[in-house]
Design brief:
alpha/beta, DNAb Helicase, Chain A, Rossmann fold, 2 domains, 18 helices, elongated
Length: about 450
């Protein structure tokens, strides 16, 4: 016996319960939306009930009919609502009615998604794109009720926090993932699950080097499984960077091959040995849409586990659907990466370009507003790291790089210095003395006066 994809009786039961017992409004409206109704008349009546309640009016066939006199068919709302109310014998089974309406709505969406996949299968599209779109369509469906409430009392949340803090204090829980750079860890307080960290910089600033090194450290140290999406560099170039970084081999000599020295071969052999069986995965396929990125990330998580994802870089990700502007498309992509981090429960590192405005500024230091294409990147990110290396200074020419953390939801904004070793495609801790800028001198004076209360 096949199941019907809709139940007009259940839809009437939901509508009748809301009109006969207004106290059920919040419970029902929290479980069912107008789009869940199969019959267009029922969907319109349900929306009229919602609008009537939002306007502060009582809910019954008369008031709803006054609020919306006609249904899409042109029939009287009062007459139709009255007929439903009269046919509703009891409101006691409203939960069963609501569940039936919602379940059938999900089934219809499954059928629609399957039909959409069938249509795509006949088009001239790569198989991977069809699979990714199908998986995204399934993911977009709302889950059925799992019996869990949509809210929690504060004492339940606080107790969990206390347990977490106690585990951290006793060393039983690690606070996020280490970048492998102590000064950067101190600044960011590690990479947290379900967060997006944006690493931004001008072309050639070292943002790819920093992002790759962080994921590489996590995988090589045994802290977790890493996945790198490289939309700009081919896998061969990424491989060269890993060899240079792990083996301390000059990347220029690796690239030419003919200039390799005896020590370079030893370093390269050591780097390869360090990589054996280490869980660092790379995808350099072009045209990776958010749906395909999600599909591949889920595949890696399912087959190997997954603890961190890096995407290089945001500006090269094509949107799943065209927006009115590139800024709007980038905003949607940024939201998709945020949703990915939450869905997989892992940190996502998202690389981004900066516009050239910072180079015209005194001091040339970038700010969050310099992120290219969309202000929504700044809004979605949990942490923003700006890679700043001033090549007009002697320090910059020698590789001294300032990491400016312009936003962080779990730590105070600030900065740290790293030493960029370009020939080895890596960063190391900065060992030199830092020159204090005039801005910091003035800020120090302000804080001293603030602490003493002396503003006279």
């Amino acid at each position: 016996m096949s199941r019907e994809l809709y139940s007009v009786e259940a839809e009437w039961g939901v509508l009748g319960a809301m009109m006969l017992d207004p106290s059920l409004f919040d419970a029902i409206s929290g479980k069912v939306v107008a789009a869940d109704f199969y019959d267009i008349e029922n969907a319109a009546l349900y929306q009229a009930i919602l609008d009537c309640h939002a306007a502060g009016e009582p809910i019954d066939p008369v008031t709803v009919g006054i609020f919306r006199p006609e249904l899409p068919s042109g029939d009287s709302t009062i007459a139709y609502a009255g007929e439903i109310a009269k046919a509703t014998y009891s409101t006691a089974n409203w939960e069963a009615y609501a569940k039936a309406v919602r379940e059938r709505a999900v089934l219809r969406r499954l059928v629609d998604a399957a039909n959409a996949v069938t249509e795509m299968a006949t088009e001239e599209k790569p198989l991977a794109d069809i699979i990714a779109s199908a998986q995204q369509a399934m993911a977009d469906l709302r889950d059925l009720e799992d019996g869990e409430p949509d809210y929690k009392r504060i004492d339940e949340i606080v107790r969990k926090n206390v347990d977490t803090i106690d585990e951290k204090h006793n060393g039983k829980r690690v606070v996020g993932l280490s970048t492998g750079l102590p000064d950067l860890d101190k600044l960011t307080r590690h990479l947290r699950p379900r967060t997006v960290t944006v690493i931004a910089g001008l072309p050639g600033s070292g943002k790819t080097t920093l992002g790759l090194q962080i994921v590489q450290n996590i995988a090589m140290s045994g802290a977790g499984v890493g996945l790198v999406f490289s939309l700009e560099m081919p896998e061969e170039e990424l491989g060269q960077r890993v060899i240079a970084s792990l083996g301390s081999v000059d990347i220029g000599r690796l690239d030419s091959g003919v200039d390799m020295q005896d020590g370079d071969w030893q370093g390269m052999t050591a780097a390869v040995a360090k990589c054996v069986d280490k869980p660092l995965y790379v995808c350099d396929r072009p045209g990776m849409t958010p749906a395909r990125i999600r599909s591949i990330a889920r595949q890696v998580q399912r087959n190997h586990g997954l603890d961190i994802v890096m995407v290089d870089y945001l500006g090269l990700i094509p949107a799943d659907a065209k927006g009115r502007s590139r800024s709007e498309e980038v905003g949607k992509i940024s939201k998709a990466m945020l949703n990915l981090s939450k869905e997989l429960g892992i940190p996502v590192i998202l690389l981004s370009q900066l516009n050239r405005d910072s180079t015209k500024r005194v001091g040339k230091k970038p700010v969050s507003a310099d992120l290219r294409d969309s202000g929504e990147i700044e809004a979605d990110a949990h942490c923003i790291l700006m890679v700043h290396r001033d090549m007009d200074t002697e320090e910059g020419q020698n590789g001294v790089t300032e990491i400016l953390m312009t936003k962080c939801r779990h730590a105070q904004v600030g900065s740290c210095l790293l030493q960029q070793q370009g020939q080895f495609a890596r960063f190391v801790s900065f060992a030199g003395a830092r020159e204090i800028s005039q801005e910091e001198v003035e800020m120090g004076r302000f804080r001293s006066r603030s602490a003493s209360g002396d503003f006279a």
